[in-house]
Design brief:
The chain is built from 6 helices and no strands. With 195 residues, the chain is mainly alpha-helical. Helices cover 59% and strands 0% of the residues. The radius of gyration is 55 Å and the shape is elongated.
């Protein structure tokens, strides 16, 4: 038996060097984990850390979102005001051309002829008289429209009264000519004028 023990001792297995170094590193790592509290650290710290990171990201997004919103709102306001300025500029140009037109001597003469019938010296005015025209239809007449002598409440009542009553008020009613039939002779139309 003595021989078997000696053979056992001579048959030792040798471990390669790189495995020994790896085993040493693993052992050192496990010792450091045990010194820090081991791999069984509470999971709440990890969730708390994620919550803090999410909170910080939200604050950063909020800090960026408000100025961005203000920037885009300002840009839209600037665009709206620029279009308003352009429209006002067009209106100003139209009014300036209108003012220049009224400063022109030719325009003033033309309007005086058209509105008031004014003629230059040496010109002869011809007026065509139409028999269908009323004498009050002249351009230079001093004819004024007749005023309504009714009270305000009568005017108001007449404005909401039946349309049939408005068309033919009792004070100025006219009879309309009717078509003659075989039984009745044709009547001549009657004209009534308010005096």
């Amino acid at each position: 038996m003595a021989r078997t023990t000696s053979t056992r001792s001579t048959r030792r297995t040798t471990v390669p060097v790189h495995t020994r170094a790896r085993d040493a590193q693993r052992a050192k790592f496990h010792k450091s984990l045990k010194a820090k509290g081991g791999p069984n650290q509470p999971k709440g710290l990890d969730i708390l850390g994620v919550g803090v990171i999410i909170g910080v990201l939200l604050l950063v997004l909020l800090a960026i979102a408000v100025p961005l919103r203000n920037y885009y709102h300002g840009q839209s306001e600037i665009a709206r005001l620029e279009s308003s300025i352009a429209a006002k500029q067009v209106k100003k140009d139209e009014l300036l051309t209108e003012i220049d037109k009224y400063k022109s001597e030719e325009y003033i003469k033309q309007e005086a002829r058209r509105r008031f019938g004014v003629m230059d010296e040496g010109e002869t005015a011809y007026r065509i008289m139409d028999p269908r025209m009323d004498s009050g239809d002249t351009v230079t007449s001093d004819h004024r429209e007749e005023t309504d002598g009714r009270d305000w409440y009568t005017v108001l009542w007449d404005s909401v009264a039946d349309p049939e009553e408005q068309l033919a008020p009792p004070e100025t009613s006219m009879t309309l000519p009717t078509e003659p039939t075989a039984e009745q002779p044709a009547e001549e139309p009657v004209e009534q004028r308010a005096e």
